[in-house]
Amino acid sequence: MSNVLLAKCKRIDKSAIFPSSIPLTHATDGDVKTRRLLLTIAYDGTDFEGWQGRPGARTVRSVLAQACSDLWDFSPIIESSSRTDSGVHARGLVAHLDFPQQLAHIDHRHVMLALNARLPRDLRIMKCQAPRTLRHARFDATSKEYRYHLHLGAVMPPHLAREAWHIPQSLNLPAMQSAAAQLIGQHDFRAFTVKRRGTLGSSTRTLYECRVQQRGTTITIHLHGDGFLYKMCRKIVGTLVQIGQEKFPPSIIPAMLTQTPLPTLPHLVAPAQGLTLWRVHYTESEKRKKNASLKDIRHKT
Predict the structure, then answer these.
(1) Quick count: other Cβ atoms within 10 Å of Cβ 12?
(2) Least C-beta-crowded within 10 Å: which of 25, 77, 83, 130?
(3) What is the structure's pLDDT at 291?
């Protein structure tokens, strides 16, 4: 990025872009027509209390809202595709910002640069788009991808401490892969969530991919599904790790998916720092492709 362009972004004339006569605080999907920008966001979640937490906490949303306020003297409506937990990272979280339609002349490229100039080093806007339709970052998402990183070995390299779970022993990789394959498909995943206040809605979800891959001392668990329950990714990883430690056999998975009563069940929830929201999908063609692959898997089995 050139210094000249960055300087221009920092010197945006707020009064010229957002005239005070426009009711900026009423940008909604209801009776006021809006202009929507889609942001692809990446962040190191170590020092954030999730996307949205308790009032006064350092959350991704609050820091982004403050940057918007510093730039424009108001905070646009901000909605995200996912509400990541404290300590969880993101490479491709999607959020949208709503502005009144009268401000359609705003250059979305300048918005990305100007916001990044005001954001801390652990949070960045990677892409800013002006969609033709009012796509909702959360409700229009068709699937999400997560990745979880494990580091095996006696010593944890310091540069990996913020982004991987240290497992100081080898794991039974074939057993983990066998268990992961049994999770693919549409199932009731209530055994893979953590109880919260209130009533649990539908716990049926579809996993298009659950794959365990090892390269050297790093194991990566790939998860791709149409949606995830509270801490579902981390509970899946914790279960796979306990299977890799041979505390449970891969055959425990069908029992968990059917809520079969057993004396003991995997209960480990993997720590947050190893999990990254990798990508959010919005195309129906992607969903159809994944559903077709599921049918192929069922046919082969």
Answers:
(1) 18
(2) 25
(3) 59
Write down the pLDDT at residue 54. 82
Weakly modelled stretches of the chain, pLDDT under 50: 1-32
Q: What is the pLDDT at residue 233? A: 98
Q: State how far Cα 284 lies from the chain centre.
A: 19
Q: Are 9 and 1 in contact (CB under 8 A)?
A: no
Q: What is the pTM of this model?
A: 0.83
Contact 173, 191 (CB under 8 A): no
Q: Are 1 and 125 in contact (CB under 8 A)?
A: no
- Which one of 44, 47, 70, 85 is the catalytic residue? 85
pLDDT of residue 103: 62
**pLDDT value, residue 20:** 30
The set of residues, in sequence order, having a beta carbon less than 8 Å from that of 96 and lying 6+ positions away, is 36, 37, 38, 39, 78, 79, 135, 136, 137
What was the pLDDT predicted at 72? 79
- SS3 call for 97: strand
Q: How far is Cα 266 from Cα 251, in angstroms, rounded to an integer?
A: 12
DSSP E strand stretches across the chain: 34-43, 77-80, 89-100, 123-129, 143-152, 165-167, 185-188, 204-215, 218-225, 275-281
The contacts of residue 77 (CB under 8 Å, 6+ apart) are 27, 28, 97, 98
Domains and CATH numbers, the chain: 3-129 (3.30.70.580), 143-300 (3.30.70.660)
Kindly state the tokens that stand for 30.
């209801």
β-bridge mates for residue 42, sequence order: 124
Residue 244 sits at φ, ψ, to 5 deg, of: -65, -30
